[in-house]
Amino acid sequence: METTIIPADLAARLDALMREHPELSDHGICWCPPGADLEKDRAELRAHPNQIEICLVFLGDAPRYKPRTGSYFLKHSLERVLESLGVGRHISNGSLIAAAMLLGIEWKSEAPNARIGVPRAWATKIEKLAEKRAGKGLERARPWLPPRKHVACAGGR
Q1: Which domain covers residue 129, as residue numbers?
Q2: Does the pTM of the predicted model rise above 0.90?
Q3: What is the DSSP letter of 28?
Q4: Residue 156 within any structural domain of the chain
Q5: DSSP string, 43-98
Q6: Who's near 80: CB < 8 A, 6+ residues apart?
């Protein structure tokens, strides 16, 4: 039986993560645009669990590395992959960072961004693979690696 990397209790895990990291918001870490309300920005992150789910799938197969790759680079890389697959959409910096945290990927804050422990070259390779497979349908939405049997989020299943 294949297990998903998307936890059924994603909302509860996100709430726990945000209690543990009160600096985490939709825009990233410790940052909100001038004049914006941090609590409103945190609510925005909670309001879009589908973005976090997409990031969990994207990062779930990534090889682990020292935290060197910028979250903003990875966010844009994922957006380009989704665009190549014809399902282009916005992914927030906070969603990418939250997914990395939920997966237990090593990270370091560089407010408002974070350094994430996946290789930059891996993300670039994924983009190129997605471009090659563009237009071949959503069944190829995970072109980077064969499906895994199980990838657990940090803190449980």
Answers
A1: 10-136
A2: no
A3: E
A4: no
A5: HHHHT-HHHHHHHHHHHHTSPP--S-EEHHHHHHHHHHHHHHTT------HHHHHH
A6: 127, 130
